[in-house]
Design goal:
This protein has about 250 residues and is an alpha+beta fold. The protein is built from eight helices and eight strands. The strands form two sheets. The chain has a six-stranded antiparallel beta barrel with strand order 2-3-6-5-4-7. It has a two-stranded antiparallel ribbon with strand order 1-8. It is globular and about 60 Å long.
Length: about 250
């Protein structure tokens, strides 16, 4: 897998989002149980700066996200899914990174199983496939390569209208607009809402109030002084990051 900037200090080079990182994983990466084996280290008891403290939790968060995705891929036959009716580019679409699409799902059939009457929610990571998957190989077929998408929003007035960010261009977009005979399924994998909130907490704006609050919580007395965090304080800060920092 291509090495990417994942530091929590805003560092040098272009920072990326957790969604960017997940999109960068090939299907082989997603299935590799040892992908982050050497990246996750034991979290120390002392830190020299707020950035070092925050950075120590980034790798475990990535590993946890990867483990969730890997687990979901072992249960694809049970994954909720819906068939797409149409897909078109959003007005904010801009290659190569901002691959925003608006999709419409086919109406749910009350006679179908619960897995086929699934209602997407914002924050979900989904796969787009040309068959309803029964196993991992169905996500990476010869005519339809591995394609992930992140649910940006669901229309409250019409929940079958969904806005997504795609990991790659959706190549059958024009054919579906012309109502040609192409089938595409929208398959639930994991919900990333909580992990993305935590990721953003670990990548705070250096001039923003969140970083100042974090500094206050961990009682920083000087940039180069060590911060000694007892188990209680660690839990307190983790709870603060998890519950009080929103997307």
């Amino acid at each position: 897998m291509e090495k990417k900037q994942i530091s929590a200090d805003g560092g040098r080079g272009r920072s990326i989002s957790l969604t960017d990182l997940v999109f960068s994983w090939s299907i082989q990466d997603a299935l590799n149980t040892n992908l982050y084996k050497n990246l996750v280290k034991k979290i120390p008891e002392t830190f020299k700066s707020t950035a070092e403290y925050l950075n120590s939790f980034v790798a475990p968060l990535i590993e946890e996200t990867h483990a969730d995705l890997l687990s979901s891929m072992t249960r694809l036959s049970q994954a909720p899914s819906r068939q797409l009716y149409s897909v078109e580019r959003d007005k904010y679409y801009k290659a190569p990174r901002d691959l925003f699409y608006n999709i419409v799902l086919r109406k749910r059939d009350s006679n179908r199983s619960d897995l086929e009457t699934y209602q997407p929610q914002s924050g979900e990571l989904v796969a787009l496939t040309d068959v309803r998957p029964k196993c991992v190989s169905d996500l990476n077929r010869p005519k339809r390569s591995y394609l992930l998408a992140y649910v940006q929003a669901v229309d409250e007035a019409n929940p079958d209208k969904v806005s997504i960010l795609s990991s790659k261009p959706i190549m059958i977009e024009q054919e579906m607009q012309r109502k040609e005979n192409h089938t595409l399924f929208f398959v639930f994998l994991i919900n990333m809402t909580t992990n993305i909130r935590i990721w953003k907490a670990f990548h705070p704006d250096p001039t923003g109030g969140n970083l100042k609050m974090i500094n206050k919580v961990i009682q920083m007395n000087g940039v180069m002084k060590k911060i000694v965090l007892c188990a209680y304080l660690k839990r307190t800060l983790a709870l603060f990051l998890h519950l009080n920092l929103t997307v």
